UniProtKB/TrEMBL annotation, chain A:
Keyword Electron transport: no
Keyword Chloroplast: no
Database matches in InterPro entries: NTF2, NTF2-like_dom_sf, NTF2_dom, Nuclear_transport_factor_2_euk
Subcellular location per the Swiss-Prot or TrEMBL entry: Cytoplasm; Nucleus; Nucleus envelope
Protein name stated in the entry: Nuclear transport factor 2
Free-text function comment from the UniProt entry: Has a role in nuclear-cytoplasmic transport of proteins and mRNAs. Facilitates protein transport into the nucleus. Interacts with various nucleoporins and with Ran-GDP. Could be part of a multicomponent system of cytosolic factors that assemble at the pore complex during nuclear import.
Organism: Hibiscus syriacus (Rose of Sharon)
Record lineage: Eukaryota, Viridiplantae, Streptophyta, Embryophyta, Tracheophyta
TrEMBL record, chain B:
Subunit (UniProt): Interacts with RAN1.
PROSITE patterns: NTF2_DOMAIN (PS50177)
Protein name in the entry: Nuclear transport factor 2
Signal peptide bounds: none
Domain NTF2: 8-122
Gene3D superfamilies for this protein: 3.10.450.50
Alphabetical UniProt keywords: Cytoplasm, Nucleus, Protein transport, Transport
CDD domains for this protein: NTF2
A Pfam family hit: NTF2
GO cellular component, as recorded: cytoplasm; nuclear envelope
Subcellular location: Cytoplasm; Nucleus; Nucleus envelope
Organism from which the protein derives: Hibiscus syriacus (Rose of Sharon)
Length: 122, 125
C-alpha cells in the first residue's frame, strides 16, 4: 500500500478519534509508547490516554494542513503533521505541529511508538 | 536515560544548525545514501541530492534560532527522534520565518549519529 495513503489514513483516523472520543485513542498506543506534549513527557498507553482525556477542553476540532511521511526503517513510518486546533468557545484556532513514529502491529495495522506535539505560537 | 536523550538531541541540533548557518556543504557528513529529506513537501533521497538541495537554497546567509527541542528514543538500536521548532532569519528580511523540523537519527560506530529521516516545514502565521 502506498505509504502516503497509509499515513493519511492514520492521520484521519487519529484526529477524528481525538475529536470525537479521546478515550478511544488507547488502542493506538502500547506500553512502550512515548508522548511529549508541549514539553511534558509521558510513557505508556494508560498514562498517555489519561493525559489526553484530561486536557482542559470538552470539544475540539483538528484541521490538518500538511501531512508528510517517510519510512523510518524496519517497517516503521514517520509522519509529520501541521494544522490548526479549534477549541469550542475560542475565537481563534491554535496552530500546531505533531510528529508520529508508527510501528506495524502483527495484525497489519500501526501503533504509535513516538508522539511529539507542539503548539506553534506566532 | 531520558536526560541523556535530551543531551544527545540538543548536541546534535546545535551542531546541525551551526553547519546549516555557517558551512552548508559540511552537512553532507550528517547524511547517508539511505537518508531522506522532505523539504516543504518536496522529497529528496540520498546524501548527494540532499546536500545539493540545502546548498542551493536561495539565500547565502541564514540564522536559525531554536525555540524548542523535544527528543525521544526511537527503539531502533539507539535511534532518536528529535522535534524542533524555531525561527529562521534571512539577511535583509524584516520578519523571521517560523519553522518546525523533525529528525530521525541513527547511531554510527564512532558514537555519532547520521540523519536517516529529515522533514522541514515553514509555519505560516
Amino acid at each position: 500500500m502506498d505509504p502516503d495513503a497509509v499515513a493519511k489514513a492514520f492521520v484521519d483516523h487519529y484526529y477524528s478519534t481525538f475529536d470525537a472520543n479521546r478515550a478511544g485513542l488507547g488502542n493506538l498506543y502500547q506500553e512502550g509508547s512515548m508522548l511529549t506534549f508541549e514539553g511534558q513527557k509521558i510513557q505508556g498507553s494508560q498514562s498517555i490516554v489519561a493525559k489526553l482525556t484530561s486536557l482542559p477542553f470538552q470539544q475540539c476540532k483538528h484541521n490538518i494542513t500538511t501531512v508528510d511521511c517517510q519510512p523510518s526503517g524496519a517497517g516503521g513510518m514517520l509522519v509529520f503533521v501541521s494544522g490548526t486546533l479549534q477549541l469550542a468557545g475560542e475565537q481563534h484556532a491554535l496552530k500546531f505541529s505533531q510528529m508520529f513514529h508508527l510501528m506495524p502491529t502483527p495484525q497489519g495495522s500501526f501503533y504509535v511508538l513516538n508522539d511529539i506535539f507542539r503548539l506553534n505560537y506566532t | 536515560m531520558e536526560e541523556q536523550i535530551d543531551l544527545v538531541g540538543k548536541a546534535f541540533i546545535d551542531h546541525y544548525y551551526h553547519l546549516l548557518d555557517n558551512d552548508r556543504p559540511a552537512l553532507s557528513s550528517l547524511y547517508r545514501p539511505s537518508s531522506m529529506l522532505t523539504f516543504e513537501g518536496q522529497k529528496i533521497l540520498g546524501v548527494e541530492d540532499i546536500t545539493a538541495k540545502l546548498t542551493s537554497l536561495p539565500f547565502d546567509q541564514c540564522q536559525h534560532v531554536i525555540s524548542t527541542i523535544d527528543s525521544q528514543p526511537s527503539t531502533f538500536a539507539g535511534g532518536i527522534v528529535v522535534f524542533v521548532s524555531g525561527s529562521l532569519q534571512l539577511p535583509g528580511e524584516e520578519h523571521h520565518l517560523r519553522f518546525s523540523q523533525m529528525f530521525h537519527l541513527v547511531p554510527v560506530l564512532e558514537g555519532n549519529f547520521f540523519v536517516q529521516n529529515d522533514m522541514f516545514l515553514l509555519n505560516y502565521g
